[in-house]
Amino acid sequence: MASVVQKEFCPQATCLIRAGLQSQILLPSDSDYNTCEESYFSNTAKLKPACITQIRHPQRRPRPLAGSNNIHGGVTIDLSLLNSVRFGSASEAVSFGPGVRWKHVYVKVQKHGRVVAGLLLRGGNTWMTARKGFACDNVVALEVVLADGLIGTADRNTHADLFRALKGGSNNFGIVVGFTMSTIPCQSVWGGSTASPNECIPDAIRITGYFTKRVVENPDSNLTRPKSDTWFTLTVKIDERIMPKAAEVHDGLVEELKSYVPDFSFIIQCIFQPLPLAFARHAVAAGGNVLGLERNTSDGILLQTSTMVKTLDQREFAYPRVKACIRAVDEYTATINGGILEWLYLNYADESQDVLRSYGLENVEFMRAVSRKYDPQQIFQYFCPGGFKLLGVML
Fold first, then answer.
1. Who has the most CB within 10 Å: 45, 65, 151, 174?
2. Which CATH fold would you assign to the domain 85-187+362-392?
3. Of 32-36, 343-347, 356-360, 368-372, where does mean pLDDT reach its minimum?
4. pTM score
5. Do strands 228-237 and 114-115 pair parallel, antiparallel, or not at all (unpaired)?
6. CATH topology of domain 2-78
7. What does the H/E/C string look like for 7-23?
8. Helix/strand/coil (H, E, C) string of 330-375?
9. Is residue 233 within 8 Å of 344, Cβ to Cβ?
10. Residue 282 has what pLDDT?
11. What are phi and psi of 267, to 5 degrees?
């Protein structure tokens, strides 16, 4: 009874109680609230909502409430209990809820000699992209709760516009409560890492460029504790002048962090990933997405710079320096004809980067049209502000 009384004093919880969701509400005083908060892999993602509502069945229609969202003082809609996994032997597709852990999906499909890859609403650049396209291009159907609370299916034949917009458009259109993906034949995966001294950087840069150009000819060649983190990204053309500059800037960042974190208890990385023009062809074959990769005019390199540190003050030290590193590489690359490729990868981007704009005017206008059609009151733009929003895109 005490728990119910407490929840009645939370305005957001009161709205949920009136909607019949009383048994699914968690307040900061509930032990399960803290369990949910601690489940985030990064400390920077651990916010303090006024309450958490846990959805057990999509039919209960989780919907945004005015003044409520997944930020401090709002409402977090927790989908972790939607964790079923089903494999269709005839279709060789796998269906699962958004709360499932990928390891459970892998176990299910591995029994049938198949695999899938994740990060579905934000693109998903995986070790299978050269063979099958981005992860979002392997989605065949989505079950979506729209702003009016209705649940619908989006695929190539039903709500095809919404289906395309969700493939790369992130959380601008609804709450996805179910995914169906085609699976990829794969009996085993070989993986690991290698380490080389700084003297090998020129060779590594040369090999990366060569690998990017050849990866489509041999797509199988691409099979390769909580902290506060900072991620930035940039896409550049293959040019043996650009990557050495990025490596040089990265070395300077390492030295700065070493001066502030004397026990060297941080992780820092500068990653180069192939982004050949051919990646866009898989998207077209799968019905299209909104990433805009087809706008690239040359094979590219996806650059990701990130740090992981232990404390908030260390992150406050690292953040502007990582941002400055990306800016330095960006400014240098701009001096090279055609060096900058406009596209940004959402999963690697910082909130200050204009990701959706980098998809191109045509795709932004398409997403806005889909948003107005399925969310005429713009609930997901104004009352669910987390992530990269169409509302903030300036063209």
1. 174
2. 3.30.465
3. 32-36
4. 0.85
5. unpaired
6. 3.30.43
7. HHCCHHHHHHHHCCCHH
8. HHHHCCCCCCECCCCCHHHCCCCCCCHHHHCHHHHHHHHHHHHHHC
9. yes
10. 87
11. -120, 130
